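Work Package 4 report. The design task specified in the project plan requires that, given a folded chain encoded as structure tokens, an amino acid be chosen for each position. We show below one input record used in the internal validation round.
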């Protein structure tokens, strides 16, 4: 027997283990933190080098403008702007790179804006240089010289900003390099210190465990000496489980020498054997169940048993105590006590026989002894002159009446029943008593008794004795309640079976049970319906069911069936069947094997998945069509991006040059036509850009980030400063929330909605835009739109512009839909469609309400994050 495992407390070891784990976690976390600090320092140094490189690219870029060769290339490239456009794109890329790299540096970020403006001035001056150079007169030469001076001045200002940025980066490089060296040198020292502390904790733990081990050995030796000298049988058992985790027996792990002394069993021979194998009387006395109960309920169990050893009867008093992973059974030899009890019992029986002989002539006392555990009463009949029983006199009541009615037997004896228990005349009990006397046969009946607001039920037997009746009563409240519960359970079972049948019909599911030994199958009613038959219309077997399988699927069906029978492992698979009516259906089958009454049985379910498979085929077809449409859309994007915009840029460029050189020679009609051409080209370019923006709006989970809508609004107000100022628009806003979304799409949403409010202003009053915010429940969405979200951010854009007729509230969100002529208000008719697509990509909703001449309201609902 392993005393260490049974008696040793694990609390100390658990505490030591927790301390060691905590130290290990602290060591790991501090090491990780130090490494991350070192890595962050290295990343900061790398970031500075990237800024250096970007500034170097900037130097290379603007230095080209100083080169006469570069300027000659610009001047000579008169038929194509590609060379100069590439140069501008290169500058834009450098500025974008610097803006990205310096977004965490407020000083650099402030310098990027003027630096970008200076580069734009430089490009404009280079274009002017190209235009001036194309003419050949003295004034033009002077203008060319002036332009070169402007270019040099611009280059000087760019160089100044660049030098200041380089100086700041050199200072940052010096600071970050010092920080990196500090963290790099500190990491090994920190690791060494923490490792030393961890080693100390493990050494302390080892010493503690070793000392406890010595104490356990000492306790083990002491316990063995006690068990060797005790007069009791001491055994330790551990449970044995079957395949379904039920305890079927116990294994003997320890047995002391008293097994040899009392039972003739050698301890070493029975250790490792099963309890039922060594002590078969455990099963006959149901003591195995007591052992299992003690183990499972963690409670002590006491029982006495008699065994015959070498034809000699012996009695043992056993105490079962749960211990560790088993039970400890201590049995003491109680043979002397039991033999004394037998002698006492023999004497007692002799006395009882003598008393019975004395009471033979008193039959009612015999009845009392027969029913002494119940309420026993004897009533004497009170008859009228005509011989009819009109009442009873109480002659005897045992003490069991007191807990029921509270009556004291001595107080109610010799009194009339009508005075003590008048209710029996109303409840029908009185009639049972009379029938028992008059018919001379026992009467059995039940009656309720109300006490303290509760109802108790009693079962009574009335037996005639002389001219009276003896009533034996016992309480059956528990039996009554159990009977009612059984009735209720049966009703619930009927309801559940009805629900299951309905559920199978709705879900198109049937279940089956298949006996492998004879091939007989039992299937549910709905399975018959799925095959086109009425329930029990035919007897189903494996061979009979094969007839329903589609011929093209029979080979696979047989292969899968053979594999399942060989491996006894069910597999989910789908096949086609032909119903009685000739309909083709798809069935999906799955199941499992169980043992039922010693036979291997397969149980499972069959589901009609015809609609699902047909829907999947339709979905595949729809996906293919969608894929083709996406390919067409991508093709359109390429055409719109390059083939359509390139001619427009040529038209704009040559129109600009014609206007610069020939504008003075235009007639009034020519100027009008020329302006219409320019406006048409600009509108066409705006239309293409909006179409591209609409088609490119896409989103995925990785695009999401935390977006502060207050910052978005501030940026848009800054971008639209000119429009807001010129139109004298007043913008009033509540504090807006932070959402999960895509920043540039939110900026585009706010830009379009605010621009619309400015564009469609009312001529009779100054434009005013109010942006209101509140958090609302999903149930407050218009039209009760289906959603899984509980709360939404409601952002309303209210203006006092020209408004619109409410019947067009949905039309205005469609592509190319306009409520006004393009001569009245500029625009492409795509802006609100872009807004709708952005909101829907963020799992939100957008609605519009309006009133002509009064104003419009655009309401955006965006999902609120769940706490």
């Amino acid at each position: 027997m392993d005393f260490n495992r049974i008696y040793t407390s694990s609390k100390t070891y658990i505490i030591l283990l927790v301390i060691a784990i905590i130290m290990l976690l602290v060591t790991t976390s501090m090491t990780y933190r130090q490494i991350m600090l070192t890595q962050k320092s290295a990343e900061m140094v790398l970031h500075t080098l990237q800024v250096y490189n970007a500034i170097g690219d900037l130097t290379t870029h603007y230095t080209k403008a100083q080169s006469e060769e570069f300027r000659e290339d610009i001047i000579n490239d008169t038929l194509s702007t590609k060379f100069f456009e590439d140069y501008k794109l290169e500058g834009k890329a450098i500025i974008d790179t610097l803006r990205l790299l310096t977004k965490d540096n407020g000083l650099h970020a402030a310098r990027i804006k003027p630096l970008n403006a200076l580069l734009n001035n430089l490009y404009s001056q280079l274009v002017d240089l190209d235009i001036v150079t194309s003419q050949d007169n003295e004034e033009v030469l002077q203008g060319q010289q002036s332009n070169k001076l402007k270019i040099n001045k611009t280059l000087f200002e760019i160089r100044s900003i660049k030098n200041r940025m380089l100086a700041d980066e050199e200072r940052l490089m010096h600071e970050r390099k010092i920080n990196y060296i500090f963290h790099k040198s500190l990491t090994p020292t920190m690791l060494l210190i923490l490792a030393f502390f961890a080693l100390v904790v493990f050494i302390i733990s080892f010493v503690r465990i070793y000392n406890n081990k010595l104490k356990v050995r000492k306790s083990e030796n002491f316990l063995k000496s006690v068990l060797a000298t005790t007069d009791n049988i001491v055994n330790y058992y551990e449970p044995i489980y079957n395949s379904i985790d039920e305890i079927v027996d116990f294994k003997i792990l320890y047995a002391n020498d008293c097994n040899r002394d009392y039972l003739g069993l050698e301890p070493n021979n029975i250790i490792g054997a099963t309890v039922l194998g060594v002590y078969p009387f455990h099963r006959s006395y149901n003591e195995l169940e007591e052992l299992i109960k003690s183990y499972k309920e963690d409670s002590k169990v006491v029982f006495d048993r008699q065994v015959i050893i070498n034809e000699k009867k012996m009695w043992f008093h056993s105490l079962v105590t749960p211990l560790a992973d088993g039970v400890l059974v201590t049995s003491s030899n109680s043979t002397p006590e039991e033999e004394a009890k037998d002698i006492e019992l023999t004497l007692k029986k002799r006395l009882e026989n003598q008393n019975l002989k004395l009471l033979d002539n008193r039959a009612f006392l015999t009845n009392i002894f027969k029913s002494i555990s119940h309420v026993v009463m004897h009533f004497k009949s009170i008859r009228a002159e005509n011989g009819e029983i009109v009442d009873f006199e109480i002659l005897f009541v045992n003490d069991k009446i007191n807990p029921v009615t509270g009556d004291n037997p001595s107080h109610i004896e010799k009194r009339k029943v009508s005075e003590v228990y008048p209710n029996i005349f109303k409840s029908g009990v009185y009639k049972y008593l009379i029938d028992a006397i008059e018919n001379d046969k026992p009467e059995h009946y039940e009656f309720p008794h109300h006490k303290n607001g509760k109802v108790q039920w009693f079962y009574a037997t009335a037996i005639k004795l002389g001219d009276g009746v003896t009533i034996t009563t016992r309480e059956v409240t528990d039996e009554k309640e159990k009977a009612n519960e059984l009735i209720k359970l049966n009703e619930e079972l009927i309801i559940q079976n009805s629900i299951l049948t309905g559920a199978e019909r709705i879900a198109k599911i049937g279940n089956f049970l298949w006996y492998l030994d004879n091939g007989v199958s039992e299937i549910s009613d709905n399975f018959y319906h799925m095959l086109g038959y009425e329930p029990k219309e035919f007897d189903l077997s494996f061979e009979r069911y094969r007839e329903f399988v589609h011929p093209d699927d029979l080979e696979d069906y047989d292969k899968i069936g053979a594999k399942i029978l060989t491996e006894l492992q069910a597999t989910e698979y789908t096949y086609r069947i032909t119903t009685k009516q000739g309909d083709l259906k798809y069935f999906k089958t799955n199941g499992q094997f169980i043992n039922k009454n010693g036979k291997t049985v397969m149980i499972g379910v069959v589901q009609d998945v015809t609609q699902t498979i047909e829907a999947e085929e339709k979905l595949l077809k729809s996906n293919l069509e969608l894929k083709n449409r996406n390919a067409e859309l991508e093709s359109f994007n390429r055409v719109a991006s390059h083939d359509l915009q390139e001619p427009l840029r040529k038209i704009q460029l040559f129109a600009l040059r014609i206007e610069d050189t020939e504008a003075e020679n235009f007639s009034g009609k020519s100027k009008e036509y020329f302006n219409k051409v320019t406006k048409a080209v600009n509108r066409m370019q705006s239309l293409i850009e909006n179409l591209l923006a609409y088609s490119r709006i896409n989103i995925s989970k990785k695009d999401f980030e935390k977006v502060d809508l207050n910052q978005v609004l501030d940026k848009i107000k800054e971008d639209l400063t000119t429009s807001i100022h010129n139109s004298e628009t007043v913008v009033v806003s509540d504090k807006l929330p932070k959402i999960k979304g895509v920043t540039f799409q939110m900026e585009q949403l706010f830009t379009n909605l605010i621009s619309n409010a400015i564009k469609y202003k009312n001529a009779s009053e100054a434009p005013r835009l109010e942006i209101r915010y509140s958090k609302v429940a999903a149930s407050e969405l218009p039209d009760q739109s289906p959603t899984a979200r509980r709360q939404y951010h409601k952002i309303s854009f209210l203006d006092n512009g020209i408004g619109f007729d409410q019947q067009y509230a949905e039309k205005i969100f469609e592509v190319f839909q306009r409520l006004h002529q393009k001569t009245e208000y500029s625009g492409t008719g795509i802006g609100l469609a872009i807004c709708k697509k952005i909101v829907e990509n963020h799992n939100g909703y957008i609605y519009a309400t309006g009133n002509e001449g009064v104003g419009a309201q655009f309401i955006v609902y965006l999902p609120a994050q769940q706490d």
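The mean pLDDT is 77. Validation will be extended to a larger panel in the next phase.
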